[in-house]
Design a protein that fits this description.
single chain; 8 helices; binds heme C
Amino acid sequence: MIVHHVRGAVVGIVAVLGIVIGIVITVVYMGYAPMAADSAPSSMEANLAMKAVHAISERQMGEVTNPLPFTASNLAAGLKLYQQNCVICHGAADGKTSSIAAGFYVPSPQFAKNGTEDDPEGATYWKIHHGIRFSAMPAFMHSLKDQQIWRVTMFLKHMDHLPKPVDRAWKATKSVGGMDMATSPKMDMK
Ligand code: HEC
């Protein structure tokens, strides 16, 4: 008797799994999966993803402190790296979103308005080094040296209270790929 029940339950579970897999395959291959980047992620998706990123970066590196001395020259070098590698997605001091950043499915925070000064430097280093999966945030371990990542991390940590000369250079940083470029120039393509 019991064997019969167990067998029935197993057959039922396998059948339900088969139907679910069938639906998933149909949705994906028939073109019903929502793959466009033109909408905003639901707040549940965004919250869960951000919690996961904060949790892993803090678990692995939350306690690690910046090995570089806190100096104006390290901050200035960090600013330069930021200008070269990050402004297009995270914006300059004016906080203007570039035409590229405006189109991401997972939005890139504009750091002048929404910075990471409160995060542990180790966790920020982790995000820059490893990048963030399922988003446009690249893993800079392939293109920047450790020391460079720590410098840009130091800059992000102190972005809102920089020593005068570095602050002046930060405030003078120009946005790139501004929104006005998204609609102009109008070209006659005849
Ligand atoms: C091509 C676009 C792009 C570039 C270039 C880029 N980022 Fe990002 N970055 C993103 C996106 C998108 C996110 C948001 C990811 C998410 O919310 O899951 C992000 C997130 C981050 C975060 C996490 C923010 C938080 O709230 O925890 C940090 C830190 C960061 N980026 C630093 C940098 C630095 C430093 C550079 C340059 C060295 C850089 N990024 C270059 C797209 C980019």
